[in-house]
Amino acid sequence: MAFGAEELRVLRRALALALHPRPASAEDVQDCLRLAESVDEAAREGARLRAFLLADLARYRAALPGTAAGYLALLEEALGTGYRPNPDDLSALRALRGNPTAAALLDRCRTLAEQDVRARLAGRTATPVVPQSRTRLLALPGGRAADEPAKKPAERPAERPAEPGSRPPVKSPRPIPTPGEVFPPRRKPAPPPANPPQQLAAG
Description:
Residues 124-203 are annotated as: Disordered. 7% of the residues are buried. 53% of the residues lie in helices and 0% in strands. The protein has 203 residues and is mainly alpha-helical. The protein has a domain at 5-123.
């Protein structure tokens, strides 16, 4: 993406406002908005051109080997835009390895494919490295708290001395009786005898 002289002046003013914030004039605001719209339009146009290029590349690849020259030119152009070769491209280049241009592109595409595989494997196996100073946490078992000596159980605080002029607490002369002592349980009545004595009949 290339900028013209006027666009570069607007971009310079926008960067100056970003680095040294100050009230922007209405003209600066309008120029920045127009520049942003131009950049967005250029990005959309670039995406459309890339889509057309990849579609042509797929058509030329499907028509091989008769379209070898056009396919190799399109593949080299696509690689320059960041395109990553797929397995169909590698198979096509292997079939055209007798062509010096195809052989060079095959080596280049193999290198790119290997880089992609390594990047995927590194992304799957990479684990976050925790700094040594943070490997032991206070809130987890075995953290720094485990290194500290066990604290003694909290001792009962000593009674506060009586303030001068205050009356000492009155202690009861005897312990307060329990409810069971004040209200003893009622005794159950004795059951009647199993065989009451028979009264003698009056003579």
